[in-house]
Automatic annotation (TrEMBL):
<feature type="domain" description="NIPSNAP">
    <location>
        <begin position="5"/>
        <end position="100"/>
    </location>
</feature>
<protein>
    <submittedName>
        <fullName>NIPSNAP family protein</fullName>
    </submittedName>
</protein>
<dbReference type="InterPro" id="IPR012577">
    <property type="entry name" value="NIPSNAP"/>
</dbReference>
<dbReference type="Pfam" id="PF07978">
    <property type="entry name" value="NIPSNAP"/>
</dbReference>
<dbReference type="InterPro" id="IPR011008">
    <property type="entry name" value="Dimeric_a/b-barrel"/>
</dbReference>
Amino acid sequence: MITCFIRYEIDPFRKDDFATYARNWGQAIPRCGADLIGYFGPHEGSATTAYGVYNIGSLAAYEAYRARLAADPLGRENYEFARRERFILKEDRIFLRNVSLPHGKE
């Protein structure tokens, strides 16, 4: 299992648009095969930093998932929404694996 962390730089005056974008992914991402942890938008501190986080089985599974997401009607609509409205200024993606498992209980 790997976890994809997406760091967004967003327009601070378009936080509501990013929230709409995030809610749309909340429907499309699980339907297309990834385990969505969530999208996180600004609350305190930086008004321009947001994150999307989800788990996927492998990089090969990620490639298949991305193809399904691109073919999904809501996925296509959401990509177009972000492109048209330009509230995302920058997007960085990194894949990490959880190296602290199993977590102990105290």
